TrEMBL record:
Main location: membrane
Keyword Kinase among UniProt keywords: no
UniProt cross-references to PROSITE patterns, sorted A to Z: TONB_DEPENDENT_REC_3
Transmembrane segments: none
Subcellular location: Cell outer membrane
Identification of the protein by name: TonB-dependent receptor plug domain-containing protein
């Protein structure tokens, strides 16, 4: 009987892992992910580690329709449904850490969050498609919220090839009598190495004698972060510090830097937040918050090698800037009856450039943002839920925007769920876009998306499908020649995304996803550059013994489309295989994961992003490392 009880408990735990998918990312009210408007992916931190993801950036590639990209000097890019390949201006996704937005007003990105080690992550919540009706700016092609580990006590050490490694930990304390708790989450990691580069852009013009190729790309890194959260009687105070340093990668002009593991760029994010939950009555509650945010970036990028154009020494270009944002907001939740849940949200923010990157920049560049949203979640019947949302954002420098959403969810029965949604979102020009227009003032970009979703659930397996069409008006990109930013031609996306999860038994699980998108510019019917039409993931997780689990992860990326100025054939597709073994007992004590990435040592690359013409193309694009090993071990106490 005891053995049967243990087995039943294990099966129940497996079943619950399929059902426990609550998120407030889509509506700011806690809901099962299967019942929210649109589709959400919720990635568990422990499982991400088991599947070989080492950072948030790598983890996002496990989401259907999401691909990775690199800017030439190491900036991470995330392409959602083919959108996001645009040089220095890749901020088409809202990136948040514990609900605090980290998108830079300067360039709209948040490289430090994408480099966050998975050891610090409890889970990652992802909404595919527009989310501006709830989250405002940069929720253009998706929304990502990284939830850090809090209610744990552990230390961990990680290591990898080329002497990379680091240490981190989580500490948690609580006083139940005073309703007080405190958590501290920290990490410090360093890495060296890079990918082998046979040729750089100097080979295109017959000056290979000046080149550092063949050699490694400079992918040295140093990352440190600290998250402190204190909660007392409904009041939450948080501090987030992320310091991200990395090398030159492939060089600012595609001239390969020397192999000296130099840290060329440093980005620092510091945020502070205070929020309070106010319960007015059984049907009325409010959430009040105040945030401050600071982002500093400094870079000393390799530009040209010694001897080139008669220079006695290598040429580097420095660029530093400092920006800040201050924000207050309030959400009021009202349940007038058992069929309506009404949300009223108000926000006021100021973003300003404290120290511009160049002397010729406009002085005192800043923007004021006032926002208001109204949302009604209406239970039309016991099986049909309707959600209507509208948000208005008024910018002091680029105008006003209205972001509506109308969605319906029909729970046909306990197995079948149908979803229908229309949503519109905007992406305001960044400070960088506004300062460097190539042809005229850079205008905001808009996107309208229509989605039809279906979820089929069984006790041991479930499947999700979504069909969508998105219409992008004036997407912002970097101009040909790299001379500034422009609004490119309107674009249409049509695609399908599929997910499947099957538990063969309590000790064996299969996860699969696939996506297809046809992304085309409407002016010439050409495919959108940088992306691919097909992506797929397949993972097999097997627990041969009680505390041991092994995983095999396959990732397929189809052909990548070239930019118009690039005469080469499309970048070939590839398949990567990662393998890992994890020991994690159910009680406190030692735990660890050992993994191998790119097990079959496949040669693959990310597409070139020079934007300055054929002479500066990387002949072999951006090669990526071959087979590498890594490990992460720790102790729970």
């Amino acid at each position: 009987m005891a053995a049967e009880s243990v087995e039943e408990e294990g099966e129940l735990r497996d079943l619950l892992s399929l059902l426990d998918n609550e998120t407030d990312l889509a509506t700011r009210s806690g809901m099962n992910a299967d019942f929210i408007p649109g589709m959400a992916s919720i990635l568990d931190g422990d499982e991400l580690l088991l599947r070989g993801a080492r950072t948030v950036w790598e983890a996002l590639s496990l989401v259907p329709g999401v691909a990775q990209g690199l800017e030439m000097t190491g900036e991470r890019q995330v392409l959602s449904r083919g959108v996001g390949y645009s040089g220095y201006t890749s901020g088409n996704i809202k990136l948040m850490l514990d609900g605090v937005s980290l998108n830079s007003t300067m360039q709209a990105n948040a490289n430090a969050l994408l480099n966050l080690p998975i050891e610090q992550v409890e889970r990652i919540e992802v909404i595919r498609g527009p989310g501006a009706s709830v989250h405002g700016e940069y929720a253009y092609a998706g929304v990502v919220n990284v939830i850090s580990r809090k209610q744990e006590r552990q230390i961990h050490v990680q290591a990898g090839e080329s002497g990379s490694g680091g240490v981190g930990g989580v500490w948690y304390w609580e006083d139940l009598e005073r309703d007080l708790n405190l958590s501290i989450n920290f990490v410090g990691v360093e890495g060296k190495g890079g990918a082998w580069v046979d040729r750089d852009a100097l080979y295109n013009i017959g000056l290979e004698s000046y080149s550092n190729a063949p050699g490694r790309s400079d992918e040295a890194s140093r990352f440190r972060s600290l998250f402190v959260n204190m909660e007392w009687a409904g009041t939450l105070a948080s501090l987030q510090i992320l310091n991200d340093e990395y090398g030159d990668y492939y060089g600012a002009h595609h001239y390969l830097p020397s192999d000296d593991d130099r840290l060329a760029t440093e980005q620092r994010f510091i945020t502070g937040r205070i929020s309070h939950e106010l319960i007015v009555s059984e049907t009325l509650r409010a959430s009040l918050r105040a945030e401050t945010w600071r982002h500093e970036r400094s870079s000393d990028l390799f530009l040209m090698p010694a001897g080139f154009m008669g220079m006695r020494s290598a040429l580097y270009v420095e660029q530093d800037y400092d920006e800040a944002r201050y924000q207050v907001g309030a959400d009021v939740h009202w349940d007038p009856n058992d069929r309506h849940h009404v949300l009223l949200g108000l926000e006021a923010a100021r973003a300003e450039l404290l120290d511009p990157p160049a002397d010729d920049w406009e002085n005192n560049r800043h923007r004021r943002i006032l926002s208001a949203l109204v949302q009604d979640q209406f239970r039309a019947t016991d099986r049909i839920d309707l959600t209507a949302t509208v948000r208005v954002d008024d910018y002091s420098d680029v105008g006003s925007f209205v972001s509506p959403r109308l969605a319906g969810v029909w729970r046909f029965d306990s197995h079948n769920i149908f979803k229908l949604q229309y949503a519109r979102a905007f992406r305001p020009p960044t400070f960088h876009d506004l300062e460097y227009p190539a042809e005229g003032p850079v205008k905001p970009s808009m996107v309208s998306t229509y989605e039809l979703g279906y979820v089929y659930k069984q006790p041991r397996w479930e499947a999700r499908f979504i069909v969508y069409q998105s219409e992008l008006d004036r997407p912002v990109t970097i101009a040909l020649g790299g001379i500034g930013f422009v609004n490119s031609a309107d674009t249409r996306l049509r695609g399908i995304e599929m997910e499947y999860e099957y538990r063969v038994g309590p000790d064996l699980k299969l996860e699969a996803s696939a996506s297809y998108v046809d992304a085309r510019r409407l002016d010439d019917d050409e495919a959108l550059e940088g992306g691919t039409d097909v992506l797929a993931n397949l993972a097999l997780l097997w627990r041969p013994f009680t505390d041991w689990t092994t995983a095999a992860q396959l990732r397929y990326v189809g052909e990548r489309v070239r930019a118009d100025y690039d005469p080469r054939d499309p970048l070939p597709g590839y398949t990567l295989v990662d393998l890992s073994l994890q020991y994690r007992p159910s009680i406190n004590g030692f735990f660890g994961t050992l993994g191998v990435k790119n097990l079959t040592d496949v040669d693959y690359a990310y597409p070139d992003q020079s934007f300055v013409g054929v002479r500066h193309l990387m002949p072999d694009d951006y090669p990526r490392p071959g087979r590498t090993w890594w490990m992460s071990v720790g102790y729970n106490f």
